[in-house]
Amino acid sequence: MEQLDIKSQTLSELKKTVEDLSEKPFRAKQIYEWIHKKQADSFGEMTNLSVSLREKLERKASLVSLKVLDVQTSRLDGTQKYLFALPDGNMVESVLMKYHHGNSVCISSQVGCRMGCRFCASAIGGWTRNLRPSEMLDQVYKIQKLSKERVSNVVVMGTGEPLDNYDSLVRFIRMLSDEKGLHISQRNITVSTCGIVPRIYELADEDLQITLAISLHASTQEKREKLMPIAKKYSIDEVLSACRYYFQKTGRRLTFEYSLVGGENDSQEDAEELARLIKGLNCHVNLIPVNPIKERNYVQSDKKVIENFQNKLEKYQINVTIRREMGRDIDGACGQLRKRYLDKREDS
């Protein structure tokens, strides 16, 4: 019989589990606190539970605890990249970025990715499986424990397409922001999507206060299709209509992620087209100098080209910033560290 994934259970679900074990309901709150506040890695650590209850939990449930395979630390800015092993042997990456306003953790939502964006290392090798809420949560918990510093912001922007793992994502957000757990404000949680239109509408109706970041990466349908296969299924106009609905329902300003690829989407005409496209939307544009990867022939735009692109958007009163490049001296781009490990495994 498959064991219960107890770290993915809400407090009400955990109460039912405890009752099924013929234990008093208050035990559920104790267990929940051990898992989500104290971030216990085993039932044995839960010292205010009876030995018999801990033994029951060992038999009936599993407590997901990711194993650290590698940690890379940037000498430039202290950014740390973690490679974690999941209970089934698959691997995911997470990143800790330290800012003046607090520590931000970027987590993965899937093992691999099926979206196939042309400039992204995460898509190489395709999709393996979705992560469970427990596996998403434990990336945050492990980094907080290892760094011994409070995590204040979480970004679901690592490997995978979060809206392609929708149910686990929403449960993860609710549990991460739960006052009985780590209690990270939903306003400090950002979810990035390449634009799965039906799920954007669903997310808008969830009554959450997260920030939605849309990976736009082009200002025309033709160019977007070239860079992002998902654009053939959902047009740029459909994505923007969903964005307008999201803002209307949540009142949350949208972020548009725009990776600048040299000679592909970084001209002054591209900037003008982008400004026209998003005019009137309460939004912010995040320009991202693309991380070159050896499997693709895309290159990063010149610094002057990036600055000119920013200036052109500002001329049209578009709120825009250039993303600060963090951890550039380590395997910084999504999927690079995991891919290096997989390649090493295949060669040995």
Automatic annotation (TrEMBL):
It holds the Pfam family RlmN_N. It catalyses: adenosine(2503) in 23S rRNA + 2 reduced [2Fe-2S]-[ferredoxin] + 2 S-adenosyl-L-methionine = 2-methyladenosine(2503) in 23S rRNA + 5'-deoxyadenosine + L-methionine + 2 oxidized [2Fe-2S]-[ferredoxin] + S-adenosyl-L-homocysteine; adenosine(37) in tRNA + 2 reduced [2Fe-2S]-[ferredoxin] + 2 S-adenosyl-L-methionine = 2-methyladenosine(37) in tRNA + 5'-deoxyadenosine + L-methionine + 2 oxidized [2Fe-2S]-[ferredoxin] + S-adenosyl-L-homocysteine. Coiled coil: none annotated. The active site is at 93 (proton acceptor), 334 (s-methylcysteine intermediate). Keywords: 4Fe-4S, Cytoplasm, Disulfide bond, Iron, Iron-sulfur, Metal-binding, Methyltransferase, rRNA processing, S-adenosyl-L-methionine, Transferase, tRNA processing. Binds 1 [4Fe-4S] cluster. The cluster is coordinated with 3 cysteines and an exchangeable S-adenosyl-L-methionine. Its EC number is 2.1.1.192. GO terms for molecular function: 4 iron, 4 sulfur cluster binding; metal ion binding; rRNA (adenine(2503)-C2-)-methyltransferase activity; rRNA binding; tRNA (adenine(37)-C2)-methyltransferase activity; tRNA binding. Specifically methylates position 2 of adenine 2503 in 23S rRNA and position 2 of adenine 37 in tRNAs. CDD domains: Radical_SAM. This is Probable dual-specificity RNA methyltransferase RlmN. Its main location: cytoplasm. One of its GO terms (biological process) is rRNA base methylation. HAMAP family: RNA_methyltr_RlmN. NCBIfam families: rRNA_mod_RlmN. Gene3D superfamilies: 1.10.150.530, Aldolase class I (3.20.20.70). It comes from the Bacteria. GO terms for cellular component: cytoplasm. Reaction proceeds by a ping-pong mechanism involving intermediate methylation of a conserved cysteine residue. It comes from Candidatus Blautia stercoripullorum. Its cofactor is [4Fe-4S] cluster.
